[in-house]
Design goal:
Blueprint (H helix, E strand, L loop, with lengths): L3 H30 L7 H22 L6 H29 L18 H4 L16 E2 L2 E2 H23 L3
Antiparallel strand pairs: 1-2
Helix pairs in contact: 1-2, 1-5, 2-3, 3-5
Length: 167
């Protein structure tokens, strides 16, 4: 018979995952709005996992004890898979930044026709290359940190599911 600390661990792990994810997307927005960092195409794509995963996780937390067991596991699996996707996207972007593989052409502006009319408005749109590291801490780029954070969320959600499998 599990004690209350063991029984509450899955909820605590899911809550920490939600708070960590919320802090991460808030940090991304903060670095853009207040820090002046302009996100590239891959940066913007990485945010979709948070836009989808956090609402799913919030609903799981809100209805934690009211969801049927099967629905709870399906919802947690969906949240986990969204953050697996986030880990992949962030890891891919970090690899592009560190030159392990080429990035998408959307990040370089290649293939876009420019007319003379566009020259009058040339400063209105800034193409940010995906392979340029705009900010790093201890040699790790923001995409690298996103990969680490997303992997930690995956690990916590997977552990929560593992711990709740018998309960």
């Amino acid at each position: 018979m599990p004690n209350s600390l063991t029984a509450d661990r899955p909820w605590l792990l899911a809550t920490i995952s939600f708070v960590l994810g919320l802090a991460t997307i808030a940090g991304a927005w903060g670095s853009q709005i207040f820090g002046g960092l302009v996100p590239c195409e891959l940066c913007l794509e990485q945010r979709f996992a948070y836009y989808w995963g956090l609402p799913v996780l919030a609903l799981i937390l809100i209805f934690w004890n009211r969801l049927p067991r099967t629905v709870w596991f399906i919802a947690m699996a969906i949240a986990l898979l969204i953050f697996v996707w986030s880990t992949y996207m962030a890891g891919h972007h970090a690899g592009v930044e560190y030159g392990f593989w080429p990035g998408p052409t959307a990040c370089s502006g290649i293939g876009v026709e420019v007319s003379f009319e566009d020259l009058s408005n040339i400063n209105a749109t800034r193409v940010v290359p995906c392979d340029a590291i705009q900010f790093e801490i201890l040699g790790v780029s923001l995409a690298g940190f996103n990969a680490i954070i997303s992997a930690a969320i995956v690990l916590m959600l997977g552990t929560a599911m593992w711990l709740r499998r018998k309960g």
